[in-house]
Specification:
Number of strands: 4
Largest sheet: 4 strands, antiparallel
Radius of gyration: 25 Å
Helix content: 25-40%
Structural class: alpha+beta
Strand order of the largest sheet: 1-2-3-4
Number of helices: 3
Oligomer: single chain
Order of helices and strands: HHHEEEE
C-alpha cells in the first residue's frame, strides 16, 4: 500500500475513534394494540363470554358454557383474558395485535411461568 492509502486509512480510523457524541437514550416502550384487542373491553359480559368461548372452540378445546370471563392483564404485546367453563376447566386466552388468539389451559400457567388466570375487576391496559 502506498503512503496515501495508509494516510487515508489512518484518518478514517481516527475519525471513528473520536466520536464524542452523547449515548442515545434507551428506546421507550410502545404498546401496540389493535382494534380487535380494544373491542373486547367494550363487550357486554354476555358477549365477552361468547367471544372467548368461540376462541376456545376455534383452538380445538371444549367449553359448553362459560360461567365467568374477564380481563387479566397485558403480557408482552398480548392481551390476556380468562374464561371459566361449567365443566370446571378454565382457559387463558391471549389475543394478539393481529386479532389471533392463543388458548391455554389455566393448569399450564404456573409450570410455564405465565400469569395466573385471575380476573382483575376494572383493570384495563394502559392507553
Amino acid at each position: 500500500m502506498g503512503a496515501r492509502h495508509w494516510t487515508a486509512l489512518s484518518i478514517i480510523l481516527l475519525a471513528g475513534a473520536c466520536d464524542n457524541s452523547e449515548p442515545s437514550p434507551p428506546p421507550k416502550s410502545i404498546a401496540v394494540r389493535s382494534e380487535a384487542q380494544n373491542s373486547l373491553h367494550r363487550l357486554s359480559a354476555m358477549n365477552l363470554k361468547v367471544a372467548l368461548r368461540r376462541a376456545i372452540y376455534d383452538s380445538g378445546k371444549a367449553c359448553n358454557t362459560v360461567t365467568e370471563a374477564g380481563y387479566v392483564q397485558e403480557y408482552g404485546n398480548l392481551s390476556m383474558w380468562t374464561a371459566s367453563c361449567k365443566s370446571g376447566r378454565s382457559f387463558a386466552i391471549f389475543v394478539g395485535p393481529d386479532g389471533t388468539a392463543q388458548v391455554r389451559d389455566c393448569k399450564e400457567m404456573e409450570p410455564l411461568k405465565l400469569p395466573a388466570c385471575t380476573i382483575r375487576a376494572g383493570a384495563k391496559p394502559a392507553s
